[in-house]
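Please decode residue identities from the backbone states below.
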């Protein structure tokens, strides 16, 4: 069963999305949607990040609300910076050391840094230990590194703890 439906929730979501997109409840659409819902996860299974065995969904929800607040605040800060004196901006690339081991947690960290206006995750090292971040205005690189590690990486370590092997 696991081989036929490696990601049952995604298959169901794909099937429901198909049915809503075609806006038809004809038998052919049900069957085509079902076939696509089975085949797409099978074909894309190797591309998907493995879901961690141990994680804390309530802490993840709290983290997501914090990130949404940060995005809102950062939008106003970037607007203020770009509407002000642009020549006084100090853009910089900084290297942020990463202590995360979980692939999903690393992906979330990279996404959060890129989603927050004023910063962009530019590159992740091959060993997954360093994240290259571009900041729009970076007066002190160490302050930005500390903020990313404390505000985003530390909660992700709690949400996705290392599982004993």
């Amino acid at each position: 069963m696991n081989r036929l439906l490696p990601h049952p929730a995604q298959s169901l979501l794909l099937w429901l999305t198909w049915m809503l997109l075609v806006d038809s409840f004809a038998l052919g659409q049900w069957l085509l949607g079902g076939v696509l819902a089975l085949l797409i996860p099978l074909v894309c299974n190797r591309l998907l990040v493995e879901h961690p065995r141990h994680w804390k969904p309530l802490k993840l929800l709290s983290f997501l609300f914090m990130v949404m607040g940060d995005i809102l605040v950062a939008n106003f800060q970037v607007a203020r910076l770009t509407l002000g004196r642009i020549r006084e901006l100090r853009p910089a690339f900084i290297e942020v050391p990463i202590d995360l081991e979980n692939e999903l947690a690393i992906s979330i960290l990279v996404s959060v840094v890129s989603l927050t206006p004023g910063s962009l995750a530019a590159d992740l090292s091959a060993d997954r230990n360093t994240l290259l971040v571009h900041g729009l205005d970076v007066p002190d690189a160490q302050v930005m590194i500390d903020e990313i590690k404390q505000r985003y990486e530390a909660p992700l370590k709690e949400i996705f703890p290392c599982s004993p092997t």
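Observation: The first helix runs from residue 8 to 22.
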